[in-house]
Amino acid sequence: MDDIKTNVEIADRTGHSSLSLTKKETLDLIEGNQGSWIYQNNRMVQASDIADANWADVGTIRIMPGLTGGQ
Predict the structure, then answer these.
(1) Coil, strand, or helix at residue 15?
(2) With 60 as the cut, is the pLDDT of residue 37 above it?
(3) Is 70 inside a domain boundary?
(4) Which residues of 3-25 are buried (b: 16+ CB within 10 A; e: fewer)?
(5) Element (H, E) at 26
(6) Neighbouring C-beta atoms of residue 38, cutoff 10 Å
(7) Average pLDDT over every residue of 32-40
(8) Model confidence over 41-62: pLDDT tens digits?
(9) What are the φ and ψ backbone dihedral angles of 48, each rounded to 5 degrees?
(10) What is the CATH number of the domain that holds 34?
(11) Do 6 and 26 touch, CB atoms closer than 8 A?
């Protein structure tokens, strides 16, 4: 099960990347992008939801910069 990969899309100031990652690689990427918004199949989730997910059925993960409002 450790070698199952899923599509992980990440957006940052340099643009957009699409990667095929294992669960551990994805969790490491999320940890390295604190403050980002995480989506699983177009639904916003917490990092703990990804950690607890059945990786065989997880679908696409998107890591997007968090938006802030104000002046």
Answers:
(1) strand
(2) yes
(3) no
(4) eeebebebeeeeeeeeeebbbee
(5) helix 23-31
(6) 19
(7) 93
(8) 999 999 999 999 999 999 999 9
(9) -65, -30
(10) 3.10.20
(11) yes
The β-bridge relationship of strands 43-45 and 37-40 is antiparallel
- 12 lies in some domain: yes
Per-residue pLDDT at 15: 87
User: Using one digit for the tens of pLDDT, what is the confidence trace for 7-19?
Assistant: 999 998 788 999 9
Q: For residue 69, tell me if it sits in a domain.
A: no
Boundaries of domain holding 27: 6-64
With H, G, I as helix, E, B as strand and everything else as coil, classify residue 14.
coil
Inside any domain, residue 13: yes
d(C-alpha 33, C-alpha 65), whole Å: 8
Q: How confident is the model at residue 69 (pLDDT cuts 50, 70, 90)?
A: low
| Structural domains of the chain, count | 1
DSSP letter, residue 13: T
